[in-house]
Amino acid sequence: MKYLFSTLLFLHGVIHFLGFLKAFNLAHIQQLSVNISKNAGLIWLLVFVLFVISVIAYLTRLQWWSILAFLAIILSTFLTILVWKDAKFATIPNIIILVVACFSLSQVIFNKKISNEISQVVGHSDGFKTTKVTTEQLAELPSPVAKWLNVSGVVGKEKIHSVWLKQKAKIKMKSEQESWNNATAEQYFAIQNPAFVWKVKMNMPPFIKVTGRDKFIDGKGEMQIKMFSLVNIVNEQGVKMDEGTLQRYLGEIVWFPTAALSPHITWESIDAFSAKATLDYKGTKGSGTFHFNENGDFVQYSTYRYKENEPDTKRYEWVIDVNEHAVMNSVKIPVKMTATWKLDEGNWTWLDLEITDIKYNTKLLSN
User: What is the dihedral of CA 228, 229, 232, 234, to 10 degrees?
Assistant: First the structure.
């Protein structure tokens, strides 16, 4: 598809070069019966150059290719009107190029917005002095939580203040959906001032590309999912989203266990294998229960979240189950997990997730 579109761009540019050749009597172009002045011929040449450069930029994945294509289309449309009898069918490739350029530009704008939000998260983790985790600090935690931190291998290591991780996932957008959609995602966390940005790319049949972003910054949550980075599928914010994204952040601290020592989190012992955590940050508050096995490994997180953002929506149990652990960057974390909504009509396992890379306290976060 990429090379088919680039061929269309190039050939459409070559057609405009013919107008330049005719204007300067460099070739006999039967397809253009209308006389073309030399001044107009220079415009035909300019359009050719713009399309050729946009092809090169498109193939090399330079984001500004669409801006050149927009300019070329405007000039091309003007020239088409001047020689409408001979060139009216040029409107068809112009429309195709315009649609693709619109999608591309919308993706650039959406990605720029996400980059700015990531910069906010990075800023939340700047300027903090790093200290090491001690056994004395664990003494104040419920016994299963303290055991988990010991088993994770964080004692004696520096506290984590920033996280970058990469994921591959399978997602079901609806409870009745049978097949999975493949996705890849990146996530950025700040710990001292709790925040995250999650950006995801997903393919849906037949040729639909979905991009999304979930965030929690300054105690506020927001979810935005777009088709081709242009058409909103989900665009939600408000008090319910604030609470829900905070609960998500709370459940995901298992990827950076030293966050359990955050002053914003309070722990309450339940039994020998579970404890309740409450995160209270900038007016938003939420809780969840962490479950551990006999070895001290985290195995499940459960909380009651708003499934939707409507005024009359209610909370449902939302559960993360661990399928596999691994040691990454000297820390034992869950790397394969599923997320399930327990609804009135039955369970909906909507996410099957794998961590493929993770980095702590690194400047890579600001890239």
Answer: 100
- Shared-domain flag, residues 138 and 194: yes
- Over residues 90-105, the mean pLDDT reads 91
**Element (H or E) spanning 354, and its range?**
strand 346-360
pLDDT at residue 367, rounded to an integer: 47
Q: Is residue 117 part of a domain?
A: no
Enter the pTM of the model: 0.84
Domain count, the chain: 2
The reply to whether 72 and 189 lie within a common domain is no
Q: Is the pLDDT of residue 124 over 80?
A: no
Q: Are residues 153 and 212 in the same domain?
A: yes
Domain that includes residue 24, residue range: 2-103
Burial 232-242 (b: 16+ CB within 10 A, else e): eeeebeeebbb
Dist. CA 332–CA 51, nearest whole Å: 52
Query: How far is it, in rounded angstroms, from Cα 344 to Cα 339?
Result: 16
Flag the least confident range among 104-108, 138-142, 324-328, 346-350. 104-108
Q: Are residues 67 and 161 in the same domain?
A: no
317 shares a domain with 181: yes
CB 191 within 8 A of CB 262: yes
315-333 in b/e burial notation, b at 16+ Cβ within 10 A? ebebbbbbeebeebeebbb
Q: How far apart are CA 27 and CA 18, in angstroms?
A: 8
Interatomic CA distance for residues 9 and 285, integer angstroms: 53
Secondary structure letter of residue 161 according to DSSP: -
